Amino acid sequence: MRTLDDLDVDGKRVLVRVDFNVPLDEEQNITDDARIRAALPTLEELRSKKARLLLAAHLGRPKDREPELSLRPAAERLSELLGEEVQLAPDLDSVPDGDVVMLENVRYEKGETKNDPELAERYAALADVYVNDAFGAAHRAHASTEAVARLLPSAAGRLLEREVSTLRGILDDPKRPLVAVVGGAKVTDKIGVLEAFLDRADTILIGGAMCFPFFKAQGHDIGDSLCEEEGVEPARKLAGQDKIKLPDDLVAGREFKADTERRELDGIDVPDGWMGLDVGADTAERYAGVIAEAGTVFWNGPMGAFELEPFAAGTRRVAEAIAAAPGTTVVGGGDSAAALAQFGLAGDVDHLSTGGGASLELVEGKPLPGVEVLQ
I need a surface site. Which of 194, 208, 249, 330 has the fewest CB within 10 A? Predict the structure, then answer.
């Protein structure tokens, strides 16, 4: 993959695809600027070489040009972080000639998500070279991530370079044992990840609502727990694998609410009228013990409903174990990142991926269009 080391950017206009798809509150204030801060090494390196920057990013999934999906808050926050003004271009026909300019939400452009070649040509006409530093959008073949890279001298930014090398490294040459911690809601969303780790990992720890299709396939009672029916058969096929470890105790609630009645179960059978909302204390400690002995840990997906404090203990214990693990620790996925932030552990892992879907697809072995075009 071509990197900044392969690209002449001195004094040139550089179109940089960044991932500024950040969360906003009702007042349009950014609630987490981690993705903006993650782009700073690339942007500062380019500025140190006197490059003029034209930044492209998306926010949400606009149907038209909804003002609440404007990138103005991102431009203002980046101005603070860079220490220089970031001008916002309202559209492709009104791009100011500043040192750092941000295009308005590229998904305002109708051809963006269709990888429209004419739109890519309009992007390319604005710059001399192209740098993709948006790992979170690299699994999409869009005009600003794939088509434009074919029209200009192009390379990966430092963030994209680090993401790809780190994730490929834990797959191709991990320190052993390799432990995959996989949680979340749906087996079908992560079946490819589980299958990939069956070939590579030494142990796979399952948590979250993902465990209920496994339990149902084994004939256990799951009560009112969230269970993806189409995930039961894939889980049945995977459940016999020795590498896959499942919870042996659970914490249940009457409803998905913080103030609901809570009950610690001795096993994994969930009574009628209850739903499993967290792994139990014994499971969390068992998982923590496996993680402590790992040479490499990959974590994607919480162990339970960590956003509800009465059901956060399992995810917290696993997150603490990962943060304290002596081996290499890699965390991907928005929920896992949010859990680390909630528990004050975001700075205690070796690599916190900025791309949920992209990281999963890379682990599965799927080609990422935004990466492939740079090779």
Answer: 249
Q: For residue 341, which of 361, 319, 311, 370 has the smallest C-alpha distance?
A: 319
Question: Please, which pLDDT band fits residue 66 given cuts at 50, 70 and 90?
Answer: very high
Q: Strand, helix or coil at 327?
A: coil
Confidence at residue 258, expressed as pLDDT on a 0 to 100 scale: 96
Active site residues: 35, 186, 334, 357
161 and 276 in contact (C-beta within 8 Å)? no
Name the token pair of 35: 């993705």
Q: Which residue has the tokens 């941000």?
A: 102
- Which domains are assigned to the chain? 4-161 (3.40.50.1260), 174-364 (3.40.50.1260)
Q: Can you give the pLDDT at residue 187?
A: 83
Q: What is the mean pLDDT of residues 325-345?
A: 90
Please answer whether residues 305 and 311 qualify as being in contact, where contact means their C-beta atoms are separated by less than 8 angstroms. Answer: yes
Task: Find where tokens 């003002």 sit.
Answer: 67
